[in-house]
Amino acid sequence: MASEAPTATEYVTHHLTNFAIGEGVWTLHVDTLFFSWLTGLLFVVVFWIGARAATAGVPGKLQNFVEVLVEWVDESVKESFHGPREFVGPLALTIFVWVLLWNFLDLIPVDWVPVFAYHVLGFEYTRIVPSADVNAPFALSISVFLLIIVYSIKGKGVLGFGKELLTHPFGSFPLLVPFNIILNAVELIAKPVSLALRLFGNLYAAELIFVLIALLPAWIQFVPGGAWAIFHILVVPLQAFIFMTLTIVYLSLAYEKH
Amino acid sequence: MQISLGTMIAQGITFFIFIYVTMKFVWPPIMKAMAERREKIADGLAAAERGKTDLEAANARVDELVREARDQAMEIVEQANRRASGIVEEAKADGQRERERQLTAARAEIDQAISRARDELRGQVAAIAVTSAEKILAREIDASRHRDILDQLAAQI
């Protein structure tokens, strides 16, 4: 959008650049934050309205909608996590709906919001899909990682967790302890990394393909664009669901004694 | 792909805020409402079940009452029949007795009348006989000749 007739490379690069404030690692991706907060607020407000006047009698349409999701998430949590669900349930619900809304932003035609932001608000760069910015998935997965540690300690105690780190899976023979530690560290770190990169990779690739499709002549765009969007409708809830389910599984693995 | 710690931290904090809000304001009321509804439905089903059993019990009771009433009615009718025939028998017996009584009374009266008539007749006959005898004697008796007998009689009176 910067110049009048960007080359294909410029166009793609432009679309993959965040609206950033600051330098280095402390840069803030304002667009990612704005759209994730927007979707998060949408989630929280809608669900809060639905739950506020929750009645045991005949539920309204919004309450019904909220109930369906809450019950479904609760069942999903119940299946694998055998502990108190007061926190894990809301956690799973937040992850699912929030990631789902993030991913849905990918279905908004790639040029609409950036063009609007550029011409009306004067923003040079705008990326609207938080899950296609690696920082947002990692923010979630690192939070989940911290929760894994918290739940490991909650479930097994500090000593139990430490003992598991030192003696699992090869055994308590002293020579094996370093191998145990290395393996457990890899296992622990692999969880948030794979969790975040799976979501990020899927959405980033999808966004890139939408951007590439946008480079095609206008009269043919809708054919591959439509096809990819329809396929993407499958990916959107699937990735949200995978993120939620894996979070639950990781937490239950952390919480349960072996 | 640019790593931005600031974005990550801000996102993480936002994440926990949203979890907190969900945990405080969304999850509990929905769970509570659903649990209450589940309970209400369970209660309703139990009440329906209870109603059914109650109805069955009531039906059985009604049947029993009807049967009892029928038995009672039959008994009453039977009793009434017995009573009626008893009354008829009694009345018959009464009539019979009354007839006997009246018959006896009538007979006694007749007998009495007969004996009274006979007595009267006898008296009359005697009177007639005496009168006849008087007449015969009046013609036969000579007062002077039978003075002594007459005197004797008078003396005895």
What this model shows, in words?
- The complex is a heterodimer of chains A (258) and B (157).
- Chain A is 72% helix and 2% strand.
- By secondary structure, chain A is an all-alpha fold.
- Chain A has one domain (8-255).
- Chain A has a two-stranded antiparallel ribbon with strand order 1-2.
- Chain B has two helices and no strands.
- Chain B has helices at 5-140, 147-156.
- The chains are: A mainly alpha (258), B mainly alpha (157).
- The interface between A and B is large, with 50 and 33 residues.
Structure, briefly:
The complex is a heterodimer of chains A (258) and B (157). By secondary structure, chain A is mostly helical.
Features:
heterodimer, A: 258 residues, mainly alpha, two-stranded antiparallel ribbon, 2% strand, globular, B: 157 residues, 2 helices, rod-shaped
Give the N-to-C terminal Cα separation of chain B. Answer: 185 Å
- Tell me what portion of residues of chain B adopts beta-strand conformation: under 5%
- How does the helix and strand content of chain A classify structurally? mainly alpha
Average pLDDT of chain B, to the nearest integer? 90
What series of H and E elements makes up the topology of chain A?
HEEHHHHHHH
Q: Residue-averaged pLDDT of chain A, rounded?
A: 89
Biggest sheet record of chain A: 2 strands, antiparallel
Kindly provide the radius of gyration of chain B, computed on alpha-carbon positions and rounded to a whole number of angstroms. Answer: 63 Å
Rg of chain A, rounded, reads 22 Å
Helix content of chain A: over 70%
Give the helix/strand layout.
The complex is a heterodimer of chains A (258) and B (157).
Chain A: H1 8-15, E1 20-21, E2 28-29, H2 30-52, H3 61-80, H4 88-104, H5 112-121, H6 135-167, H7 177-214, H8 218-255
Antiparallel strand pairs in A: 1-2
Helix pairs in contact in A: 2-3, 2-4, 3-4, 4-8, 6-7, 6-8, 7-8
Chain B: H1 5-140, H2 147-156
